[in-house]
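Course assignment 3, question 2. Fill in each field.
Student: A.L.
Task: Predict the tertiary structure for the chain below.
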Amino acid sequence: VPIPDALHAASYIISTTGAFLSLTSTLLLLLLILHLRSHLDPRTLLITSLFLADFLNSLNNFIVLLYVIIGGRLTEGGWCTANGWIGQYSVQASDVSTLAVAVYTWMML
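Answer field:
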């Protein structure tokens, strides 16, 4: 069943807005941490790694969405491979960072 063009447009707008908000918020948090770097402790460094992983994931999603909206098409090749690799790497980095924060917090109890 073909998807109507209006539904495609709505999904692009929602996805791009979400990716942009995530990209902007994680960038602002990373800048705030850089500004307050004199107050860094191990937990803050672990949370910073989580923000960085989320920033890379958001940036990857945002770039791909813009590319598709402008009229590009993801085909098999270098662009697709890079998108998949960055997407998988950033998600795994986010997972490991979350686990590290949880383990560190548990050890500090």
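Instructor remarks: The helical segments are 5-35, 42-70, 78-107. The first helix runs from residue 5 to 35.
Grade: pending
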